[in-house]
Design goal:
The complex is a heterodimer of chains A (74) and B (437).
Chain A: H1 3-13, H2 35-47, E1 51-55, E2 60-64
Antiparallel strand pairs in A: 1-2
Chain B: H1 7-12, H2 20-33, H3 46-60, E1 65-67, E2 80-81, E3 83-85, E4 98-102, H4 112-125, E5 129-132, E6 139-144, H5 149-159, E7 175-176, H6 190-200, H7 202-206, E8 216-219, H8 228-231, E9 234-240, E10 245-246, H9 248-255, H10 276-279, E11 289-291, E12 296-298, H11 308-312, E13 317-318, E14 323-329, E15 343-349, H12 356-372, H13 379-386, H14 388-394, H15 428-434
Parallel strand pairs in B: 7-8, 8-9
Antiparallel strand pairs in B: 1-3, 2-4, 4-6, 5-6, 9-14, 10-13, 11-12, 14-15
Classes of the chains: A alpha+beta (74), B alpha+beta (437).
Chain lengths: 74, 437
């Protein structure tokens, strides 16, 4: 994992009580970078199976893979 | 014998309209018989349990669905909408009931072979129930289970040469009207630009990074067959710069009864003799037309492209030759903050491959909205919050009179300090020498 990916993972592991975050929540982690660059970091983490998407259908959030309530508790 | 008694749903079938309840019952029976010997990959009684859970919701007065989840296919942040039943023991057939959105072909031109393939796939790996089409235009496949999603995705992309559509905080599946393929009013090739932008913006379609949904729609003319002006954050609507072309002989043909107005579309009853004054000239919203008994004239500068005269007399009137599109932004449905129609941003833009001019406007808007838009805020709401003036600044479009909705309503021109000689600081003493207190 590179330094930028580690910043995202550290941010997520440091949070308690919340497991899913909006894309905008990650922008302050990289003050010098625009949204498109931050998106690339998050996409690389999704592709590496460190992060996963959570979608309500209308809105999408990011979280650590497996974090939070299990999804298949139907 | 139905699996669940559904007296309340049965009542819905008694009305005058075709009923979704009858359709689901038909599918439930069809799956139980399985005449085609389909190797069902999800429970055969999925449609029967769907009726059961719906009846329970009607009895309880509350939903038994849980929406949302991490369901999806690997690497995609959209295209699948998770749904679970909160009474899975009673209704195991709909324990999972995920929706899959499939990108429809441009302007919805299908081959019957493709439709059969989609239906066969959904009979085998889903509930067999579809919604053709969702409001954004996608093929909506209703009801499957998590284990089927990657299989469905593989078949769609590898065998049927299509893709998932958009959902979540993504670019949603772009949509276009028939355009130049069949319509003489089309001012540009809507299908081509829709297809090209779908390819160019794959990342935005499948990997969510927007504050909320974002929709493109492409209407070939202001008739708006895909209602871009009302339903899309970025509407591209065909228009022309020069004059409406008039064939005076054909106008006389309509007046004399030789041609049916509206191409005969309203011929179901006797409306009497065609009256060009009452049915066309007087209905012009800007009163820019005149009929003197032998000649129709149009003051084209005042035309707002309502299309009524052209629709009524298509043989006599035709769109101009200098064709392109207008871009409007910010339309949305009334979920938050009320419904909004699009606001005019670019009065005229040429629509030519590779569509770089349009993409430049799109990307400037995205850069701004991604940075300054709040979570779950549509572009139209960001514009209302931060002003249309700000949008003009970020898109580097000079304010024009056509941007103003009405006098004093939305003045977009505000002086900035750097634009004023000497700035905003004044020598008050010098001022007082000229102006008494």
């Amino acid at each position: 994992m590179n330094e930028e990916q580690q910043i995202v993972v550290d941010f997520l592991t440091g949070k308690t009580g919340k497991s899913k975050f909006y894309f905008n929540d990650f922008l302050p982690l990289f003050p010098g970078k625009g949204p498109r660059d931050v998106k690339k970091i998050l996409t690389s983490l999704v592709n590496a199976e460190k992060l996963e998407f959570w979608s309500s259908g209308s809105t999408t959030m990011y979280g650590l893979k497996g974090a939070g309530k299990p999804d298949t508790d139907a | 014998m139905a699996k669940h008694a559904t007296p309340k749903l049965d009542q819905l079938e008694s009305g005058p309209w075709p009923s979704f309840v009858s359709d689901i019952k038909w599918e439930a029976e069809n799956r139980a018989k399985n005449a085609d010997k389909v190797n069902y990959q999800i429970p055969v009684d999925c449609p029967a349990d769907l009726l059961g859970v719906l009846e329970l919701s009607y009895n309880d007065g509350e939903t038994h669905w849980k929406h949302g989840g991490i369901v999806g296919v690997f690497g995609y942040g959209g295209g699948v909408i998770g749904r679970y039943c909160d009474q899975p023991q009673a209704f195991p057939g709909v324990a999972h009931f995920h929706t899959v959105r499939v990108n429809q072909p441009a302007a919805k031109y299908y081959s019957s072979e493709f439709l059969r393939q989609i239906c066969d796939l959904w009979d085998m790996r889903g509930s067999g129930l579809t919604n053709m089409h969702g409001s954004t235009g996608d093929i909506v496949l209703l009801g499957t289970q998590t284990a089927q999603l990657e299989e469905i995705f593989f078949e769609l992309t590898h065998k049927y040469n299509t893709d998932l559509g958009g959902s979540g905080s993504n670019l949603r599946t772009p949509e276009s009207c028939l355009g130049t393929s069949r319509c003489e009013y089309a001012c540009y090739d809507t299908q081509d630009v829709c297809y090209q932008l779908t390819l160019d913006y794959q990342d935005e379609l499948h990997r969510p990074a927007f504050p909320y949904k974002f929709k493109f729609k492409f209407d070939g003319c202001p008739n708006g067959c895909v209602a871009a002006i009302a339903r899309s954050d970025f509407s591209v609507i065909g228009t022309w710069k020069d004059d409406i072309k008039i064939d005076q002989a054909a106008v006389k043909g309509y007046v004399g009864g030789e041609f049916a107005p509206n191409a005969g579309a309203h011929s179901g009853r006797d409306w009497g003799k065609f009256d060009i004054q009452a049915e066309v000239v007087d209905l012009c919203p800007t009163k820019c037309m005149k009929w003197d008994g032998s000649k129709l004239s149009i003051n084209n500068r005042e035309c707002t492209r309502c299309m009524h005269c052209i629709n009524t007399m298509p043989r006599a009137l035709h769109i101009g030759d200098e064709r392109g599109a207008s871009i409007l932004v910010g339309a949305k449905a009334p979920v938050l903050d009320g419904a909004q129609m699009g606001s005019l941003l670019v009065p005229f833009i040429e629509v030519n491959q590779p569509y770089d001019e349009i993409k430049e406007v799109i990307e400037k808007i995205w850069d701004w909205w991604m940075e300054d838009g709040k979570n779950r805020e549509r572009l139209g709401e960001t514009i209302r919050r931060l002003s249309f003036q700000r949008l003009l600044e970020v898109t580097e479009i000079a304010p024009q009179a056509v941007h103003v909705k009405e006098p004093r309503h939305n003045p977009y021109i505000f002086w900035k300090e750097e634009e004023v000689p000497g700035g905003f600081d004044r020598d008050i003493e010098a001022y007082r020498t000229r102006h008494q207190r």
